[in-house]
Input
Amino acid sequence: METGNRVFEPTLCWDCKNAVRPDKCPWCDDFTPVPGWNAVEVPPSNDFTKPYSSYHVISCPLFEQDSCAGGKKKCGGGEEPVCKQGGAKSLDIIDCEVLQAYAQSGMRVYRAMKMTHYDRRTIANRLTNIRKKTNIDPREFEGLNALLKIIKEGSETNG
Output
């Protein structure tokens, strides 16, 4: 990320499992800065759809590493993923949760956001990454149905 002449690594929040937990993180709840965090204020962008300042968090006392962050590990502390499709890369537990909420919400990101308590950007990014992992687009009705079938078959073989 680049702000003015400064270049930053991605904010710490992207790798924090509390980033989508309003009961754990005051920033997630109402954009109140976390007491004791080391953060740099990022000025508003030139994009008028985002006319607000934000923060680039460097360290935070509430930070807990998300086991799914960065795609380095699978979710669930090393458990096997719930759903698989042949030779395609496997989907992790959060991918499956997002897909199920997206289907139950009538393919509406905002409603899926309310059901899962994940940020809308997280859900949108997950849907895009699912398409890249499986070559099946969950934003299309047929694709979503195919992915839900994979989840069901995967949970029956793992459970």
User: Anything to note?
Assistant: The radius of gyration is 17 Å.
